[in-house]
Amino acid sequence: MPLLLALNVFVQLAFVVHVCRSDAPRYWVFVIVAFPIVGCLAYFALEVFPSSREATAARRAAQRVVAGLDLDKGLRTRVAELELCGSIDNRTALAEECLASGMPAEAAKLYRSCLAGAYENDPHLRFGLAQALVEQRAWEDGAEVVGRLRADHPCHRSNDTRLLHARVLEGHGETAAALEEYRELVPAFVGLEARCRYGLLLERMERADEAHALFAEAVTQWARTPSPVASEQRWAKVAREHAARRGAA
Question: Which of 73, 162, 169, 183 is deepest in the core (most CB within 10 A)?
Answer without folding.
Answer: 169
